[in-house]
Amino acid sequence: MLAQNQVKVVHNPESNMKLASGIAPVPRLLESGVTVALGTDGCASNNNLDMFGEMNTCAKLHKAATLDPTVLSASTALRMATGSGARALGWEGQTGQIAQGMLADLIVVDFRKPHLTPVYNPVSHLVYAAGAADVRHSVIDGRLVMKDRTLLTLDLEEIFGHVREFAKKVRK
What is the DSSP code string of 108-161? Predict the structure, then answer.
C-alpha cells in the first residue's frame, strides 16, 4: 500500500535506538518498492547530524536485527543517504547523484588516513569506516564551500555566538 501510493519513508536509526522507538522494517519496505531515505531526526533526539554514522548504523542494525549479513548492503545504505534522500524531498532529477544536468552537490573524502587504509571497496569504506571528519572538500551547486576542511562561506565563530545566545533564550 505504501509503495502503491508512492509514500516516502525517512529512517532515523540512531534516533530510534536512542529513544527506544523500535526498529523500522526497512528491508521489508525496500523489498516492497518503498523509497526509504536516511535522516538524523535532528539534534534534539539524536545529538548529532552525522550522516556517515546513520549509514553505518542503518546497515549494521538491520543485519543484526535479521541475523542476515547480506541485508542492507553498503551500497543500499549510501543510496538511502543520497538518491533516496533526494527522492523523499521531491528533488529527484536535481540532486542525489553525480550526473550531467544535476546540481553539483558533492563531497571529497580523504582516504589517505590510517583508519581508511587500505581501500578495497570505496563504498564499503564510506559506509563502515569513514566519518564526517574525513570530508576534505564540499561543493554545493557547483560552488566550493569547504576547502581542505576550512569553511569558505561561513564564519563559524559568529555562528557559534548566535547559537550560544539562542541556547540561553531556550533555557529560560
Answer: EE---SGGG-S-S-HHHHHHHT--GGGEEEEEETTEEEEETTEESS--HHHHHH
